[in-house]
Each structure stands twice: as C-alpha cells, then as structure tokens.
Design brief:
By secondary structure, this protein is mainly alpha-helical. The chain is built from 10 helices and no strands. Helix 7 packs across helix 8. The longest helix has 27 residues. The N terminus is likely disordered.
Length: 206
C-alpha cells in the first residue's frame, strides 16, 4: 500500500520532534543519525530518507532551532527604553523553554564556526538582531530616555552584554537565576540611561 502524503508529513513531524529532544538533551555535539534514530525508535536507514547526509541533519536542526526560538512565548514589547529592555529580556534564559533554546544555540556555535557557510549565516542573524536593537535604541533616544550617541554602537554593546549573560546563566544557573539576570540587565540599562560625566564635573573644586 503506498504511503499517503499525510503519513509522510506526520512522520516528518515525528522526526523533527526526535531531533529536538536529542538537541535539548545533548546539544549539537550529540546530534547523530544513531541518536535521532534511537530517540525515534527507528533505524538509521529510515532517517536517510529525510537526511541523506549528516550535514542535511545539521541544517534541519538549525532550521528547527530558529523556528522554535522565533515561536516561543515572549514578553510583549513596549516603546522606547521599555521596548529595548523587553527585547533583551526575551533573549535571556528566564524560562525552561528559553533555557533549552539558549543551551542549544550555544552548543551550535562550534558547529557553525567549523563551517564557513554556517558562520556567514550566523553572522547575518546576529547582525539582524543588532539592527533591531539599534532601532529600539534610536527610539529611546528620540524620547529622551537615552543620551545621544551612536545607536549602532550602543546596540552592539547591549547585544554583547546580554549574550555574555546568557552564557553565565547557562554555566552557573544557581548564581544567575532569572531574577538575578533581570537585576543585572536593569543595572546595565541604568548605566546606559545615565548621561556620561564631563571632565569638568569630575574635577575636584579648586
């Protein structure tokens, strides 16, 4: 009996779920045909119908990661500085789902760095993220919530700060629980909102 389209699509969803479970448990370092097949309760031969090579499997996993990341629940963005704060909070591992997603992203960096094409894709992804942050910074400046300065440079600093905080929280979740991450982000944003002191302000009175 020939396999109908619905059966194929249902099976592909099952395969994608198995890929995601392997990623969540073992990261990209543990992503192999054998591991996915074991998670699915199938043979590696079946998987070759979907992923003829390991690179096809990795490419699917990256697409799945991007889709899952984009579709996970997020805080509603506001305007100005509050919008910037929300965008940065949405990057942090503040929930179990966000933690899984971030853990998988970090585990994928080594895979991406080893592949020039993937490296380029990742570079463009992070550039698009910086562009969105830049627009939020510029909006906050227009509202008078942030001092004047190069929005792109401020956005690059904000992205670097929050990605560093992601790594800290993943490696030491007890030291960086969700409330601590939020506090540190608010401290960082407070420094951005404070106008820089001039040399004359810092100078001691004569």
């Amino acid at each position: 009996m020939p396999r109908i389209k619905g059966d194929h699509e249902a099976r592909r969803r099952d395969v994608s779920e198995a890929v995601w479970r392997v990623l969540a448990a073992h990261g990209f370092g543990g992503l192999t045909m054998r591991a996915v097949a074991a998670e699915l309760g199938a043979t590696t031969g079946l998987l070759t119908h979907y992923f003829p090579t390991k690179r096809d499997l990795v490419a699917h996993a990256l697409d799945l990661l991007e889709l899952r990341t984009a579709s996970r629940p997020r805080l509603a963005a506001g305007q100005g500085l509050s919008g910037l704060r929300t965008a940065l909070l949405n990057i942090l591992p503040l929930t179990d789902e966000a933690t899984d997603s971030n853990r998988i992203w970090v585990s994928s960096w080594d895979t991406a760095l080893a592949d020039p094409e993937l490296s380029g894709d990742y570079g463009r992804k992070y550039a698009r993220s910086r562009d969105k942050l830049r627009d939020l910074v510029a909006a906050a400046q227009q509202l008078g919530e942030l001092p004047a300065g190069d929005p792109a440079r401020i956005a690059a600093g904000a992205q670097s700060f929050v990605l560093g905080l992601v790594v800290q929280a993943l490696f030491d979740p007890l030291a960086f629980p969700p409330h601590r991450q939020t506090e540190l982000l608010d401290d960082y944003l407070a420094t951005l909102a404070s106008p820089p002191s001039s040399k004359s302000d810092d100078a001691a009175p004569s």
